[in-house]
Amino acid sequence: MQSSKYYGFAGALALFCGVAQAASAASSVSPAAPSAALAARLADFDGWAARRMGAERIPGVTVGFSQGDVEWVKGYGYADLENRVPATAQSSYRLASVTKPMTAVAILQLVEQGKIDLDAPVQTYVPYFPVKPFPVTVRQLLGHLGGIDAYRDSRVEQHFKEHKDTRQSIAVFEQFDLIAEPGTRFRYTSYGYNLLGAVIEAASGESYGGYMRRHVWGPLGMDATVMDDPDAVIAHRVRGYRLAGKELKNSEFVDISSRFSAGGTRASVPDMLAFGRGVHAGKILSAASVAVMVQPMATRAGRLTNYGMGWEILPTGGRYAIAHGGQQPETVTYLYSFPSRKLTIAVAANLERVNPEAFVQRLFEVVTGEPWQLNTYIADAGAQRAYRVAQGLFEEGRAHAERTDQAYADAAATREAFTQINLQALAPDAQAARAYIDAARHPAGGRVFLTAGASMARQLREAGIDLNQYSRGGALAFARDYIRLSQDAKAGTVPRFDAAFEQAIVALAASWDRTAAIAWPAAPVSIAARDSQLRTAFRGQRAYPDFVPELLDLAQASAARGEADAALAASRLAVELYPLSDRAHALHGLTLLRAGKTEPALAALRLALARDPLGAASPAALNLEAYRLKGGGAVAQGMAVLQAAASLHPRDANLQDSLAEFYVEQGLRPQAVEAYRQALQLDPRYPGAVGARAAIIRLGGETKALAP
Question: Is 330 left (phi over 0), alpha (psi -120 to 50) or beta?
């Protein structure tokens, strides 16, 4: 059957960012367009996209999906604001780090040809790369486990204006010391993937771009994929934008040739889909190579990195998925593939620092009719541990069943996994149990969630249950149905859970059955309209939908419009409905902070930390929020978040480094120098230490006493 393609662009899209409307144009529809029902849902997606773009002030987006023989791609808004050029299916965006899985494919092709040994030191192929205290292998580079650092002085390394060839690109970082012994620490780095580009050139005898055209892009019909070149005439080139305060500006010009095999390409969304489709269809790699590529790697200590070879790999709502995102000047991108469903979704936008995954999630829901993720709140503190165990079993087990019909482990290993879960994850010592649960999906924890969960999924499938139903029932329905099956089975034939765990899950699942159908309205809604309805619906329930993400969106949108009271009302409702949620308390704290209420804000953030030290009030989460605010033009609010974060986490060097960056951008040089000094005093070897020392010199400070 001939593949059907439905390409078009959305004209007349009113954007809140103050630009004129695009001229509408007719969409070209192939003879075999999506079904009428799907077409209607896609029409609703248009409205959602318009609202999302307006809220985030995104000039242009192209998004699409491919499933089976149907492919749909559509552009929204503008590829070029100044010339009123609409974004279309053909628009050519910088791919940024979505280049990395393509590079990984090329490496594995050359492995298949016997030209590359994954476990050979990189100097086997790139002899000019300096020898380090430990060997760095090709395999380790593919998984970001090679000890190669990322940008050390971002003000220089991320702003090159001149073209660089391969040798010059490697020279940027070749003298950097390793940050850790290879294999011991995951450090996401484009420099490691630049080294892989040099490996490809040496092993193949071709330039990186030439090899990719002949062996990856060409065979997959990716005719619009090219190396980004500011001098070249590239059809449908998209212009990039950034927010400076409240104003849209053109992106800074950066020549990205220095990131050639890590993020130096440009392509259309249909080409992104063709790549995702081609990988899981086995068009350019053997099944064995694909299996190796999509296997998550682990550190020597046995912690999964959630990264394979060029792909992020993490169960998504109990589904098997591989993905990669990218961001750099002019662009953000995301490529998501669900191989067993033959479904690939891609998005590219021309505004820096926005979240493209929201478009992927929404389009997934439109295409499949399934929720992206079931967010479940457990109101019973004593039952939260049981839910965490059920969630781990569901995510790992159902994803494995979706990936393959082969058993993961034999009967003896499976029974041992159940035994260990009963003894340790459900033990009376809550702190020890929590540590065990945190490790249970990792090799260090014996991968017991995968072992037991895969067995549960297999037993349910053999009993005639369609595992797809758990997209709506989630972890509680999955665990409850297995419990019932095991209780009905002949004693000793099916592994059982601890009786207290079984009782807790059955009670939670019954509560979830009563509340799961309550949905957040798709259309914009006021907090007053939701307040009493949700309080009434959730009263007395032990498990119900977690709408903290929706309340977060509502609070942020209200705050952006200057409606501080509405934002605070949304965050207060979050805390009142979800008092055990770290995210709810963090939302309330951040909203109070934005309203200038510093002391109550810090108190709320401390409550969030008490509920989950690694959650929404962790140093990493607060740092990310500060940059999100800054990216949206709210620089002062971002600074307030960083200052609060530094108060809560006074030993975190990276927060001080971020504060320094904010000070620099505001012209506060003495404060920036002091913040950099504090970062170095806290940790002379933190990831940004080299850049901090360079910045102190640049800002007129003294670094002699701060050498490591």
Answer: left
pLDDT of residue 23: 32
- Quick one: which of 564, 573, 577 has its CA closest to 637? 564
The pLDDT of residue 702 is 65
What is the rounded CA–CA span in Å between residue 60 and residue 10?
Answer: 10
Structure tokens at 209: 């771009």
CB 206 within 8 A of CB 218: no
Q: Which of 380-384, 583-587, 631-635, 664-668 has the lowest mean pLDDT?
A: 631-635
Dump pLDDT digits (tens) for 627-643.
888 877 788 889 999 99
pLDDT, tens digit, 9 for 90 and up, residues 31-82 = 357 888 898 999 999 999 999 999 889 999 999 999 988 999 999 999 999 9
Across 391-406, average pLDDT: 96
The sign of the torsion formed by the CA atoms of 271, 277, 281, 284 equals: positive
Query: In this structure, are residues 302 and 316 in contact, taking their beta carbons and an 8 Å threshold?
Result: no
271-295 burial: b if 16+ Cβ within 10 Å, else e: bbbbbbbbbbeeebbeeebbebbbe
Q: What CA–CA distances, in Å, run from 408 to 413, 448, 495? A: 10, 11, 15
Q: Name the pLDDT band for 172 (thresholds 50, 70, 90).
A: very high
Amino acid code (one letter) for 335: L
Question: For residues 366 and 345, what is the distance between their CA atoms, to the nearest angstrom?
Answer: 12
* β-strand partners of 337: 322, 344
Contact between 274 and 220 (Cβ < 8 Å)? yes
DSSP string, 591-642: HHHHTT-HHHHHHHHHHHHHH-TTSTTSHHHHHHHHHHHHHTT-HHHHHHHH
For the stretch 236-265, pLDDT in tens is 999 999 988 778 999 999 999 999 999 999
Q: Which residues of 235-246 are buried (b: 16+ CB within 10 A; e: fewer)?
A: ebbbbbbbbeee
The owner of tokens 């109550």 is: 600
pLDDT the model gives residue 561? 82
Contacts (Cβ under 8 Å, ≥6 apart) of 422: 497, 498, 501
C-alpha distances in Å from residue 315, one per residue of 157, 457, 668 = 34, 14, 44
Which has the closest alpha carbon to 626: 653, 582, 662, 599? 662
- 436 vs 430: CA distance, rounded Å: 10
How far apart are alpha carbons 493 and 487 in whole angstroms?
10
Rounded to two decimals, what is the model's pTM? 0.90
Q: What is the dihedral sign for C-alpha 470, 476, 478, 481? A: negative
Q: Which residues contact 641 (CB under 8 A, 6 or more apart)?
A: 590, 593, 622, 625, 626, 629
DSSP 213: I
Task: Give the mean pLDDT of 144-151.
Answer: 95
Per-residue confidence (pLDDT) for residue 578, from 0 to 100: 97
Helix pair 269-280, 99-112: axis angle to 10 deg:
40
Structural tokens at position 94: 């910088």
DSSP symbols for 477-496: HHHHHHHHHHHHSPTTTS--
pLDDT (average), residues 5-24: 37
